[in-house]
Amino acid sequence: MGSASLAGMACSTTPTSPSAGSSAPGTTAPGAGGAATPPVSGTQCAVSPTETVGPFPSLGDYMRRNITDGRPGVPLLLTITVVNVSAGCAPVVSVMVDVWQCDHEGTYSEYGNGRGQTFLRGMQSTDTQGQVTFETIYPGWYQGRATHIHVEVLTGGRSLKVTQIAFPEDITAAVYRTGVYAAKGQSTTSNARDNVFSDGISLQTLTLTGSPSAGFTGTFTVGVAL
């Protein structure tokens, strides 16, 4: 949901996800190993909206930082921080973060034209700051959906949160005028008209710095209640 008051409600049922790791989550309390990390994708310390896992979840566990598999596109260095809203948004240590996204053409690996490939999928365990960083590309788009990246947080194979990352539309438009994205053109679905994001993206928008020519650095926070 798009506001803190609705953040704890699921937009849809979260399907069962592939098993990932066996580490139990550890929460770093404020003052122990640094101050609590506040959400950077919103202005409040709030549980992230729960969203659909979508039709293309990963069929395997791909433990890696670089998930591009040589797929072309504008580079995106994506850092995700997992925080415990029940402890003042202290970082959550040693949980798995799984991400998956489409390429510049709107294709997912492991399905359809991407069958037999694993591009743009990866998992990592959060560090002492509750963070993971993935080397990826700016996602493309496909009919009916705004630009997005899927994120799931798990511990011991149990899903703690499934959400999705939304992108600022002005930056997306600029990216889609360049390079490998230009041939497909602009997305036909805005964030507001997207069936997942239509209820608001205040807690789900990626914070970006950079440019289409130089690449981007993105930061995003996933809030869970432990």
Q: Within the CATH hierarchy, at the fold level, what is the topology?
A: Protocatechuate 3,4-Dioxygenase, subunit A
Report the β-strand fraction as a percent range.
25-35%
Please state the structural category: mainly beta
Radius of gyration over all CA atoms, rounded? 16 Å
Characterize the largest beta sheet: strand count, sense, and whether it forms a barrel: 6 strands, mixed
Please, what is the CATH homologous superfamily? Aromatic compound dioxygenase
Mean pLDDT, as a whole number? 86
Model regions low in confidence, pLDDT < 50 over at least 5 residues: 1-24, 28-43
Put simply, the count of helices is: 1
- Please give the number of β-strands: 10
CATH class (first level) name: Mainly Beta
H/E topology pattern: EEEEEEEEHEE
**Tally of separate domains:** 1
Report the helical percentage.
under 10%
Structure characterization notes:
With 226 residues, the chain is mainly beta. The chain has a single domain (4-9, 47-224), classed as Protocatechuate 3,4-Dioxygenase, subunit A (Sandwich). Helix content is 3%, strand content 29%. The chain contains 1 helix and 10 strands; from the N terminus they run ββββββββαββ. The protein has one helix at residues 169-175; strands at residues 26-27, 75-84, 90-93, 96-100, 121-125, 131-137, 148-155, 158-166, 207-211, 215-224. The strands form 2 sheets. Strands 1, 2, 3, 6, 9 and 10 form a 6-stranded mixed beta sheet that branches. The chain has a 4-stranded antiparallel beta sheet with strand order 5-4-7-8, with no helix packed on it. β9 and β10 (215-224) form a beta hairpin. The chain starts with 25 loop residues before the first strand and ends with a strand. 46% of the residues are buried.
